[in-house]
Amino acid sequence: MEGNAKNTGGWRTNKWVRAAIPALLLHCSIGTVYCWSIFSQEIADYIGFSKGATEWAFSFAIFFLGMSAAFLGNVVEKDIHKSSLIASICFAAGMAGTGFFIFYGGQHKGSALALIGIYICYGFIMGIGLGTGYLSPVKTLMLWFKDRKGLATGLAVAGFGAAKAIASPIMQSMLSNLGEGGIYKMFLILAVVYFLMMFVGHLLLKKPGDWHEPQSKDKSQGIMAVLKTKPLTNYIGIWLMFYINITCGLALISQEKMIVKCIGLASFAGIISTVSAVFNAGGRLGFSAWADTMKDRNTIYKLIFILSIAFTAIVLLTSGIKNGEGNTLLIILVLGLIFVVNAGYGGGFSNVPTLLSDHYGMGNISAIHGITLSAWAFAGLTGNQMATWIVNTFGSPVEIEHALADGTVEMLTVNPTGYQYVLYATIALYIIALIICLILVKPTDKAKA
Questions:
Q1: Fewest beta carbons less than 10 Å away: which of 14, 175, 271, 437?
Q2: DSSP per residue, 267-324
């Protein structure tokens, strides 16, 4: 009996069981929000609306992710069990509700109720699950892995980034094999699967026994008071560079499939999308683990922006997107840009909580991290839309030939000039972010020592 008690106590105080595994269960579930592009056209066709109309569901999901993280950060701070349960219920309920309204839309083609229901379920309800689920394990991980905070948070956030690569083939297989109405059946099945995964994560998640939350309700311990312990421009700088990195990442990632077609790799678009998802996840883990070895974690953001500027500049100077087809070197440069931006996009996410904890301590980190994720909310509304507006405004659509596996040829409509202009916008923003990074975000006390 005594031996069993010791074994039980062992898993109950194991940082992998109490922090890392539940974080992966939560983040690998909610990260599937990025699988939207796989089934968005199927949803549009099934309910009788344009793809553009249904796309707003994804934008709303990202917006409410950031907003719920900002407004519910204090709930996460006080009780991770309550917040992780909210996340499990809202995410699964949002998926199930989306499935129901897709079914309803299939029975009533062109129904505004079906479209609004999808907006509410996938955008608002799932968005609350996304925000609380994203935040819930982060502080716990940093408390358990005090010496390798970046590695720990990177591991969980990498799960969010890798979720697309893991779930995409599963979803595509389900859509192919579930028959008529497979799109709504998939949502209903996955709602159950992800609820079970997240609920297990909720049950396992626990802060270390030696950590005691500050009990004082004194205003001097409030979020604004904590932020004012450093010049306020310091936090503004962190928020802005986080926002710009996400905006630029979304702008390029949203056009990634069409850029790949421009350089003659339409047949490999699926493979390249998976590889870029791996770079996204690798950037989340690699950049954050690397930051653990540095005196100032802000150095990682400098590296991300410098690499992004360099690769964007090279593709602009060589007109790689316009001239890439048939040119091996230019194809490599364009793919390099896609992979570097994906890695930097992911790395920006995994480094922000540890950067904030270095600057402002662990006492209010969930709430401060939550407010900072509002940058993600606004970037979700501006990144894709900025890129779409540029592509629709500049350049002219052209048709290119694409050879299919059966030997036939299909014509693809692309706008190489428009995609090049997207890069002009992102390089300007990356330069602004680098300047902010160098001037506004001051070194931490650790870096000064």
A1: 271
A2: GGHHHHHHHHHHHHHHHHHHHHHHHTTSS-THHHHHHHHHHHHHHHHHHHHTTHHHH-
